[in-house]
Amino acid sequence: MKETIDSLRFRITKRFGTKTVLQDFGLEVRGKQFITFLGPSGCGKSTALNIIAGLIPATDGEVWIDGERIDHLPPEKRGFGMVFQNYALFPHMTVFANIAFGLQLQRRPTAEIAERVQQMLDLVQLPGFEGRYPGQLSGGQQQRIAIARALVLHPRLMLLDEPLSNLDAKLRIEMRAEIKRLHTSLGLTSIYVTHDQTEALSLSDWVVVMKDGILMQEGLPQEIHDQPASVFVADFMGFRNFFPIQVVALGPDTDVEATGNGMKIRGKTRHTFAPGASVVAAIRPDDIVVGGDARTPNAFRAKVDIVEYLGREDEAILTLEVGGRLWVRTAARLVPGENVTVVFPPDRVIFLPPEGSGGTA
Amino acid sequence: MRRARTGEPSELDLMAIACLLPSLLYVFVLFIYPFLYGIYLSVHPLKVDGFSLANYIAFFTDQYQYKTVGITFRLAVPNTIVVVAISLLFAYNMRRGIWLERTITTILVLPISLGVILLGQGILGFYGGKGWFNQMLLGLGLLEDSLVLTHNFTGVMLSLFMQQFPFCFLMLLGYISGIDPSIENSARTLGANPWTVFHRVMLPLIAPGLAIAFALVFVMSFATFPSAILLGQPSGATRTIAIAAYTQAFEMFDMSYASAIAVIMGIFQLAGLLVIILLRKRMVTAATMGVGKR
Predict the structure, then answer these.
(1) Does the distance separating the beta carbons of B188 and A114 come in below 8 Å?
(2) Can you tell me the distance from the alpha carbon of B77 to that of B272, in angstroms, rounded to the nearest whole number?
(3) What is the pLDDT of residues A131-172, one digit of tens each?
(4) What is the pTM of this model?
(5) Contact call for residues A282 and A297 (beta carbons, < 8 A)
(6) Using CA of residue B241, residue B245, residue B248, residue B250, what is the dihedral sign?
(7) B290 vs A105: CB contact, 8 Å cut-off?
(8) Dihedral sign of CA atoms A250, A252, A253, A255 in order
(9) Which of A194, B109, B235, B242 has its CA 20 to 30 A from that of A93?
(10) How far is CA B241 from CA A64, B35, B192, B229, in A?
């Protein structure tokens, strides 16, 4: 079996005409990891993946694998496996012929091909499907075959371009676990492209958040989730409440106290701010505590506007007494029109540089 | 390509039939009736009472007449192959779009909108003995005598090509650019070079479109009439079967014989289509046949 890679390093710029899709997008990662490019549509994540695969030429830049520069190689010489959002199986070939395609091109003996295809079908839990055509399979089955087709060649790097986006919610969760299982049990190096933060967090060893062709933040999933470095990443990671505010005091450790718009908020930051600096305080809807003493720090009065029932909890939109909207997720049953006290636990509030101030990590 | 069929049988109720009636009537009056009437005419020769195959026998025993079949095939087959092959070459390479695509497409489409007669006149003027093409080559000293490109086989081929290439090209371009690019990309990442991608993946997927292109171009070429008259030798080298039928109908005023020739022409066209369908089936099986079991 071909070994997976030890390291991947690239720095790429891509322009289509006058539009810059990737601006000096660079990364250096170890092999045997699950790496995710996460970002909204149009952020350049798929383009980056296609450039690594060799399917699109970069305008400028380099791609290195284990100390070998590979960006001049055509895709068929790179030895990568790729899985596409729309499966991209060959519709005129059976499942067997689809999986055997790459092995046939390598002129493997017939017996070996048959055996390895069989192994792959077992691995993706679709034995007995070799005679079917892609059109006779469900979306989930097609994606399993597409994964098998890529894995049968023992790729040194697996590239997955939003492989779950065309599946329904339940199947997506199932296939997510399947992909993670294959990645771990085969000791692969995978790059996974998605716009879904849950997918990114649950699958990845390393998350790369992108926006407009620029790397916004990279790190461990926990880091990205708990300590987003910018308003954009925070927003993407589920922080819904943002308050523009001015720093008044910096405490020990990473404590910050800030005021503005009639609010006084305490929280944490990983940035260095000077007193008086304009910042943004952010908190997730589910970190807000409803009820409590209005005299404690970070406590505010608010009126409930809209309540959405989500089963175990409610999602509510409140209007703060000092002005401004607040999204809250709470198990406490709220009633529209009622006045409540909300508390932002200080260790749950993060302070970020305001948008547009170059707040990349 | 496989299409999913819904298991539901279509229900033909009276209302549906009533709604279909106008179009059925239209098809019947303008196509089925004349077609059947033509066949009827062809087996009722002028000089014979009742049913007779005399016209058909006459056609196949008269060298002047049956030669037209060979002439027509010699025009239609090479022209079809050249038109489809060049269209495929262009369309395949333009499948991901190219620079100035719209301008190029417009230039290519122009001949269709101009009509055969104008095109024929243009070819006569440009490629004729005193035309610009010859004048230019003579002027450059590349030729000592003018090339004879019109009023012969070459002239008809030129005209057929110019009429049919744009049409065939556009059809194939539409077909090929409709194939999901990720299919091709996945083949590349699986180790296929561009040529392998073409013949193992893309060609089988293009095959149905290619067969339609072959069929349409062949039928159009086989029925060629104005080109063969304007740019060929309608009484000699390019006397196609359509000209033979026309002569019988409007110069000899023998509608029955003309109908017989038309029917013969139709049979050869159908035979051509059959060959194309059979070839297509073979081509697809061959292309999908891999090493190992299937």
Answers:
(1) no
(2) 9
(3) 999 999 999 999 999 999 999 999 999 999 999 999 899 999
(4) 0.83
(5) no
(6) negative
(7) no
(8) negative
(9) A194
(10) 66, 18, 46, 12
User: A184-187 contacts: CB < 8 A, separation 24 or more?
Assistant: A186/A151, A187/A4, A187/A32
Chain B residue with Cα closest to A135: B2
Asked if residue A94 has pLDDT above 90, the reply is yes
> Are the C-beta atoms of B183 and A90 separated by less than 8 Å?
yes
Digit-coded pLDDT (tens) for A130-142: 999 999 999 999 9
Dihedral angle at the C-alpha atoms of A38, A44, A50, A53, nearest 10 degrees? -60
Sheet strands (E) in B55-194:
none
Residue A204: half-sphere exposure toward Cβ, Cα within 13 Å: 28
Is-contact A199 A171, C-beta < 8 A? no
How many cross-chain Cβ pairs, A to B, lie less than 8 Å apart? 100
Torsion on CA atoms A122, A132, A109, A105, rounded to nearest 10: -110
Cβ of A84 and B288 within 8 Å? no
Question: Exposure string (b/e) for B112-137, b if CB count within 10 Å is 16 or more?
Answer: beeebeebbeebbebbbeebeebeee
Provide the pLDDT for residue B290. Answer: 38
Neighbours of B153 (CB within 10 A): 18
Check: CB of residue B82 under 8 Å from CB of residue B156.
Answer: no
